[in-house]
Amino acid sequence: MDDDETAGHTPIAVLRTDLHACSVEAIDSSSFLCGLYELDEAEQKRNGRLIVCDLDATFCSLDEADELADDLPKIVTSGSVETDGGVLDCKVTGNTAAAALSTGRLDIFAISKEMNQETSCVDYTLDLKLSRTSTEDGLFLSLDWSSGARGYYPQYSSIDDSAFPTHHIAVSTQTGSVKIYDLNDTSGSHALVSMSDAHSIYGENVPAWIVAYDPFSGGTRLASGGDDCCLHIWDIRTGCSATTLRGTASDGTVDSSVFLNSADEGSFSEESEPSGTVVMSNKRSHTAGVTSAQWNPFIEHQICV
Q: CB of 33 within 8 A of CB of 49?
């Protein structure tokens, strides 16, 4: 790339891992969680690990020789835990982390930290608190907390969250299903909501690659995307897909930038103005499935895929 293209995006440090890094998530302003995954073909299993990386420790550990070296400084790992399967997605809310695993398992960890007196750096610990499993859905591919991005953006502090279900987690799966788990339910792995055929082509289920809560919806609105080239907007109150945005039949594409505007109450609808409207803008087509989706944390009901 030209220098103009990389302006403002110069890397400051590097993390080299022995497994593939499939996901990263901020813990706070100086540390982040990284989910690792790798298929061991010889053993016919998927290995995984969660690691905590500390940028403060990275730059505190540099000496003058490091600063003058041509190589980027190596990011310091301040904590890790082996997982029962490859980590395909991870999310953090407060001091709690969640991991979607290749074994069809959702693991919830408590994040704790303690100052190491010898190194003067913080050591992180990830303690497994609970798990939810599914035997019929294959890999868990993606997850999101119902609290969405509220923990990172101060404007959400003004929203009334008296009925906000921060203990709900949605997952998308290899078999095209979307499930919502209530972490306060101690009875087992039964999903609070299960949409078993959320993504399919000609009656055959296909992987649902991404799931994302609308952070302004109070945990009632959820987006999911999959190999059917569809982005579904789900109304959790009914378990129904209120709006579906799909690629054209001719080329199998889906618009990669979609803006949704809706009334506070009711569901999205393409036909009924009182329930909301769907407006598409900045269209860029692609021929693959929907593998990523991100709600705008600053403007209500706006999503980019």
A: no
**CATH superfamily membership of 13-132:** YVTN repeat-like/Quinoprotein amine dehydrogenase (2.130.10.10)
- Confirm if 33 and 113 have CB atoms less than 8 A apart: no
pLDDT at 70 over 70: no
Of 254, 145, 260, nearest to 199 (Cα)?
254
Report the alpha-carbon distance of residue 39 to residue 22 in Å, rounded. 12
d(CA 287, CA 264): 33
With a CB cutoff of 8 Å and minimum separation 6, the contacts of 53 are 15, 31, 32, 33, 34, 75, 76, 77, 78
Q: Which residues pair with 230 in a beta bridge?
A: 246
Specify burial of residue 29 (Cβ count, 10 A radius: 0-12, 13-18, 19+): exposed
Q: Is 230 in contact with 254 (CB distance < 8 Å)?
A: yes
Q: pTM higher than 0.85, yes or no? A: no
Query: 97 pairs with which residues across the strands?
Result: 92, 109
Residue-range domain boundaries for the chain? 13-132, 134-181+193-305
State the CB neighbour count (10 A cutoff) for residue 227.
18
Give the span between the Cα atoms of 209 and 193, in whole angstroms: 18
pLDDT for 26-39, tens place per residue? 998 889 999 999 98
pLDDT tier at 258, thresholds 50, 70, 90: very low
